[in-house]
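Need a sequence for this fold. Nothing fancy.
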């Protein structure tokens, strides 16, 4: 028995659109009244809440960018009193200053509802044991899926990240039937399980993976490696966290929870909305969020939307896997890394900003190396001196990034110079995909 009927997901399409319009109008009115930056932007654009008469009118509203969240750090974009905020989450930013988002009780309830929808779609419920290997903490992954999993009555195992050997032992001992993690970590677990010879003893039947891009090839290897069905989940902190869109049992694109979010695809250069089916930047407007509503948030994720009917019967449109971003942020083992953060650390330690980031995927786990060029006068001629400096840089980066790169010091002028934009990042993961 599923824990609820899926009426929201199967209502007549016209009714969904009508509900969306009503919620949009309410949201716009509310943020105009409560959030200074939204009111200012709308005034500048000459648009008032009353101008929103159809869903297409959303295109008249100004965009919101990640920078706006930084500029208003920490609580400048909250739309309710802090007394109503019961949870905060955060994600890292270029300057090391995170962006902060908040949730009211209703927001958390809505979030678990969205997670529960996916679990229900996949036939996951009270008989299941859900091993959550997404990070718990300020990152939205762990807590995000946690409450939805409880909501469907499953037994939740909040393992969080790290300690792979222990994860394997717990998977076996506790009899997990569902694994939630980043796809790269799932791949890594799959290999560790094989190496430990326990794969056949695991009771896993499904996995829900997201927070970073992954390919169909990767899906197939995970499914084969762990003997499960692997499903995609999408989200971002600024908009909510995982569960903004979810894959159903058909595994053919992720249904956007359209009763909670209005989705648009725009041309990233002109900002103009694109017709259905075309590839562009995905933009979300929250329709029912209380603490941290977002208006036309530019995700920088590149993807496409289809309204073609899904075989599952859900009316919600589906978005493709986002495979690229418009900005330069890297996601390495699920952690956001900006080249500018690396630059900041190097400069602080007295190095010139001549560096190159090499990201690859070996045995399906991301590798992360930074080549750092020595200047002629800082040249080090002892091996131990080099190693000491490499360790020092690596540790400094770990404290800023939350993830530790391998540092390799290289000879002066050995990193290729470029006339135009420097090529800071060599991401070989794409080549394998
Ligand atoms: P989270 O919501 O996981 O805490 P962040 O805000 O740190 O995440 O990162 C969100 C970004 O992660 C998205 O904008 C997108 O680029 C990427 N992402 C999340 N889920 C997926 C997915 N299923 N496929 C591809 N990329 C994803
Ligand atoms: Zn479907």
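Here you go.
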């Amino acid at each position: 028995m599923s824990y609820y009927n899926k009426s929201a997901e199967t209502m007549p399409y016209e009714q969904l659109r009508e509900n969306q319009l009503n919620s949009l109008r309410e949201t716009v009115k509310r943020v105009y009244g409560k959030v200074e930056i939204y009111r200012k932007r709308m005034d500048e654009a000459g648009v008032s809440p009353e101008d929103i008469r159809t869903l297409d009118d959303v295109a008249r509203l100004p965009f919101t960018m990640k920078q706006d969240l930084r500029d208003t750090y920490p609580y400048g974009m909250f739309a309710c009193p802090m007394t109503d905020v019961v949870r905060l989450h955060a994600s890292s930013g270029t300057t090391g200053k995170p962006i902060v988002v908040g949730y009211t009780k209703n927001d958390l309830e809505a979030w678990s509802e969205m997670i529960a929808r996916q679990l229900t779609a996949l036939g996951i419920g009270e008989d299941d044991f859900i091993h959550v290997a997404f990070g718990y903490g300020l990152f939205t992954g762990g807590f995000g899926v946690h409450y939805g999993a409880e909501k469907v009555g499953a037994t939740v195992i909040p393992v969080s990240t790290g300690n792979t050997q222990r994860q394997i032992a717990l998977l076996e001992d506790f009899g997990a039937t569902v694994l939630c993690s980043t796809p790269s970590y799932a791949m890594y677990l799959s290999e560790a399980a094989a190496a430990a010879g326990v794969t056949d003893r695991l009771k896993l039947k499904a996995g829900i993976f997201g927070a970073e891009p992954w390919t169909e090839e990767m899906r197939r290897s995970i499914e084969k490696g762990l003997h499960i069905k692997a499903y995609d989940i999408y989200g971002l902190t600024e908009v909510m966290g995982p569960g903004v869109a979810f894959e159903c049992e058909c595994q053919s694109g992720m249904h956007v929870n359209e009763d909670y979010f209005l989705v648009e695809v725009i041309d990233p250069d002109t900002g103009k909305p694109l017709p259905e089916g075309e590839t562009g930047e995905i933009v979300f407007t929250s329709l029912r969020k209380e603490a941290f509503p977002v208006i036309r948030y530019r995700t920088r994720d590149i993807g496409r939307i289809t309204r073609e009917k899904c075989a599952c019967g859900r009316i919600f449109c589906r978005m493709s896997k986002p495979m690229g971003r418009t900005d330069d942020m890297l996601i390495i083992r699920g952690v956001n890394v900006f080249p500018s953060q690396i630059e900041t650390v190097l400069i602080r330690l007295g190095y010139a900003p001549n560096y190159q980031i090499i990201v690859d995927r070996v045995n399906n786990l991301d590798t992360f190396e930074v080549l750092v060029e020595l200047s002629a006068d800082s040249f080090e001629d002892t091996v131990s001196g080099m190693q000491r400096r490499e360790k020092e840089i690596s540790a400094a980066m770990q404290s800023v990034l939350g993830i530790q790169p391998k540092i390799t010091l290289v000879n002066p002028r050995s990193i290729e110079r470029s006339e135009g934009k420097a090529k800071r990042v060599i991401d070989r993961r794409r080549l394998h995909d």
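For context: The radius of gyration is 23 Å.
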